[in-house]
Amino acid sequence: MATLDDVRAYLRVISNRTDSEIDDDIAAALTHMRRVGVRESLLREDSLDPQAKYAIQAFCKSSYGFDNSEGPTWWSRYQITVASLLNSSANECAGESSESTGGSLGVGSP
Question: What's the first-to-final CA gap in the chain, in angstroms?
């Protein structure tokens, strides 16, 4: 799972004064990904998918701080990453594994 320490490091935050805000953002990112249909197996605490971890970090980076001029850029990165996770979920729901399609983008040899 993208732990508080992982996200704090990604945000380059040393202090623990904003831990509750970061925890709330982690929970919100996970809730959003579940709500839009990202497979639970990609979001499990014991085996968090690397793309899901990046999505959580991007979500947190998009909303962290008061004067966050790069927030919209990070929100776009979050959305693109979630779309990729959803595409990998759709492939497996259709009976194909990500290995048979050449990866989560579905690019592979015919």
Answer: 35
